[in-house]
Specification:
The complex is a heterodimer. By secondary structure, chain A is of the alpha+beta class. Chain A contains 7 helices and 17 strands. Chain A has a 6-stranded mixed beta sheet with strand order 8-9-10-7-1-11. Chain A has a 6-stranded antiparallel β-barrel with strand order 12-15-14-13-16-17. In chain B, the strands form 2 sheets. In chain B, strands 4-5-2-3-9-8 form a 6-stranded mixed beta sheet. In chain B, strands 1-6-7 form a 3-stranded mixed beta sheet. The chains are: A alpha+beta, B alpha+beta.
Chain lengths: 333, 118
């Protein structure tokens, strides 16, 4: 008797965590910002220090409101004549309008490239080797936060190492019309297609917040665990005063935590977490983890209850479900 | 007796005598006694928008030009909507803030007063 072949989800997960997976990320917004003040303006609108970004280098930064809330988390790449910006899924118009509102005396023009480009990504521990086989011999595989422009089997592409999944990951940006051809090229070199269920599972295991779930105007960057994306020395940006005060006086009210429960992962983002009939948090993402072979999730919980092994109740459709608060990430051995 | 309400003052930008004197003083120190003051707003600062003051030889083509206290002010056209009604003042001394914008459009201001939100 032969062992049954692994289910497709397990196969996808194994590719993503052990070899190399192909992920379609075309739902991510893409903007081009041109004009000599573009980098300076983004530096004044967001949390990270961007002023010294060299051509071919990128950085992740948080666009914040004047209340210190998250508008979006952007990856900003300095290209030769402009900035290339990755926004949250479907959030490019909001970001573009936000930037336009604050463009007053500055020389900045934004253009939405989302419809005219596609993003396919190589992710997993073997992604650097696989990409190296595809790039022309003289082109170096980009390091973290770096990008190269290259022709991959006749397809003109910009390859950015964003590590969006918390593991080596390259976003390959091509013209929309070249998307199918690129997909075939990536499949031919052995990348295994991975879908949303698997990428979400790995994201939750790694404790990475995502726009629309853990990232949005209900939360500030400190609650979301985005401290590495905040410069406390670069000077003013929108929301800086609030973020600095929250940090200095330890006023952060809630924390992003891991959650684990027995049962179903089909629970809507935004479902309340209760303790003694009072709301103490909210579940933001639920996923079925192949690693843990069970349901895990992310959520925000008031700091007093955000301690490991706190027992809360998830107000799930089938009735209150006991939930354990767990430290992040889930995938430490 | 008439019930006619007094006409509202036109929204413009004014400068106090003390602030105007300091502008002239800074211009003289810079060796440009004839220069003019340009006022604008840019995105950024803790509250969203930040004031910009510059001594310039020439205004930009679309600037709104205002004369007050014997000084010519050029106001960036796009910035004007955020500045109409503002009084530019000056607070000196050891703890003074220097030039201060008393801006009726500002719904919020940051702690140091250099940026505002609308």
């Amino acid at each position: 008797m032969t062992a049954p072949s692994p289910p497709p989800i397990q196969q996808q997960y194994d590719a993503l965590t052990q070899t190399v997976a192909l992920i379609d990320r075309s739902n991510i917004g893409r903007l081009s910002l041109a004009g000599e003040d573009a980098l300076d303006l983004l530096d004044r609108l967001s949390t990270n220090a961007l002023q010294d970004l060299a051509v071919g280098h990128g950085a992740t930064t948080v666009l914040t409101s004047n209340k210190g809330r998250i508008v979006d988390v952007l990856f900003v790449l300095q290209e030769a004549d402009s900035l290339f910006v990755l926004t949250g899924p479907g959030n490019q118009e909001t970001v573009s309008s936000w930037i336009d509102f604050y463009t007053i005396i500055e020389d900045v023009t934004s253009r939405d490239l989302t419809g005219e480009t596609a993003i396919l990504s190589l992710a997993g521990p073997d992604a650097p080797t696989t990409l190296g086989e595809l790039l022309p011999a003289q082109t170096k595989v980009p390091n973290a936060h770096e990008a190269v422009s290259a022709v991959i089997s006749e397809v003109q592409a910009t390859v950015i190492r964003t590590d969006f999944i918390g593991a080596p990951a390259y976003d390959i940006v091509v013209a929309n019309t070249d998307g199918l051809q690129l997909r075939n090229i990536l499949l031919e070199v052995g990348a295994e297609p991975a879908g949303i269920d698997v990428t979400e599972a790995l994201r939750v295991e790694k404790g990475m917040p995502a726009f629309g779930k853990e990232l949005g105007e209900s939360y500030n960057p400190l609650e979301a665990g985005l401290m590495p994306l905040i410069s406390f020395t670069k000077g003013c940006y929108i929301g800086q005063e609030v973020v600095a005060r929250l940090n200095t006086y330890d006023k952060v009210q809630k924390s992003l935590v891991g959650l684990q429960w027995d049962g179903d992962s089909a629970v809507e983002s935004g479902t309340r977490l209760l303790l003694d009939d009072k709301q103490v948090g909210v579940m933001t993402t639920a996923a079925m983890s192949p690693r843990i072979a069970g349901v895990i999730g992310l959520g925000y919980v008031r700091k007093a209850y955000a301690t490991p092994e706190s027992e809360l109740l998830l107000e799930s459709p089938g009735g209150p479900t006991p939930v354990r608060v767990t430290p992040l990430p889930f995938d430490t051995d | 007796m008439t019930n006619a309400k007094p006409k509202p003052k036109p929204l413009t930008i004014t400068i106090t005598p003390d602030a105007a004197e300091h502008v002239r003083s800074f211009a003289a120190e810079a060796g440009k006694p004839g220069t003019q003051l340009r006022v604008a707003v840019k995105g950024g600062g803790c509250s969203g928008l930040t004031y910009v003051l510059d001594l310039v030889d020439e205004f930009k083509k679309d600037d709104k030009v205002i004369e007050d206290q014997g000084l010519r002010l050029g106001v960036d056209r796009k910035s004007y909507v955020f500045l109409a009604g503002t009084s530019l003042e000056y607070y000196g001394g050891l703890n003074g803030k220097g030039f201060v914008f008393n801006n009726p459009n500002a719904k919020t201001t940051c702690g140091c007063g250099t940026s505002f939100g609308v």
